[in-house]
Amino acid sequence: MIRKNVANVEEALEGVQDGMTFMLGGFGLCGIPENAIAELVRRGVKDLTCISNNAGVDDFGLGLLLQKRQIKKMISSYVGENDEFERQMLSGELDVELTPQGTLAEKCRAAQAGFPAFYTPAGYGTEVAEGKETREFNGKMYVLEEAFKSNYSFVKAWKGDEAGNLIFKGTARNFNPAMCGASKITVAEVEELVPAGELDPNQIHVPGIFVQRIFQGENYEKRIEQLTVRKVN
User: Are 170 and 159 contacting, i.e. CB atoms less than 8 angstroms apart?
Assistant: First the structure.
């Protein structure tokens, strides 16, 4: 059986260079590849294009890369929790491409499936559709969206095996599965790495064929972005 496990995050990010395009899984602060992001910060790679649903917060997640001015362009859906992101965008320091959330997910999935493009009704008649091909199907207008092209996908799973099979837990099963296999190289970090063959096949969310490198991460903070508690009378 092919084993895709590597010793650590340093080995997992071998080949990363300035100017590359990365997909990064997660939703808010849930299920983000914390170890991979920390290693990108440590390496100081710059002029990056990052595809992610959001941009973390000021001192966590992609916010750490923004602090170091390592990101040149962000392709995102929701960016409302990061003051530094807002400052860089309004000042013109950061190129930002806002994408409808469902379209962003489908652009990842299309890349994963090998489809170059797809039609969607989302964004028709708005700035999102400017400069793009439109077409009518069954009396409804659609916009042609191209699949993403990226060098690396960095994803976070709860458990994985040495063959690259992944299991996600709870809402961490957000953009992560769609980004697996959607780039030239997919790097998965997991909380628990087990020998190949130990996972129940019926529980696997992403098969190892979509993953090139896998390693066991460490020191996960698992922050809560918006803590809401109920008052007890």
Answer: no
* Beta-sheet strands, E only, within 77-198: 95-98, 117-120, 134-137, 140-146, 152-161, 166-167, 185-194
The per-residue pLDDT string of the chain (233 residues; one tens digit each, 9 = 90 and over) reads: 789 999 999 999 999 999 999 999 998 889 999 999 999 999 999 999 999 999 888 889 999 999 999 999 999 998 877 889 999 999 999 999 999 999 999 999 999 999 999 999 999 999 999 999 999 999 999 999 999 999 999 999 999 999 999 999 998 899 999 999 999 999 999 999 999 999 999 999 999 999 999 999 999 988 887 788 888 87
Judge contact between 21 and 48, C-beta under 8 A.
yes
Instruction: Delimit the domains of the chain by residue range.
Output: 9-100+149-216
What does the DSSP 8-state code read for residue 231?
A: P
Q: Are the C-beta atoms of residues 169 and 176 closer than 8 Å to each other? A: no
DSSP bridge partners of 206? 166
pTM above 0.70, yes or no: yes
CATH architecture of 9-100+149-216: 3-Layer(aba) Sandwich (3.40)
Residues in the chain: 233
**Distances 78 to 85, 135, 171, 197 between C-alpha atoms, Å:** 11, 27, 16, 38
How many other C-beta atoms can be found within 10 angstroms of the C-beta atom of residue 3?
13
Tokens representing 121 are 């009704």
Residue with tokens 């002029």: 47
DSSP per-residue letters across 41-82: HHHT--SEEEE-S---BTTBTHHHHHHTT-EEEEEES--TT-
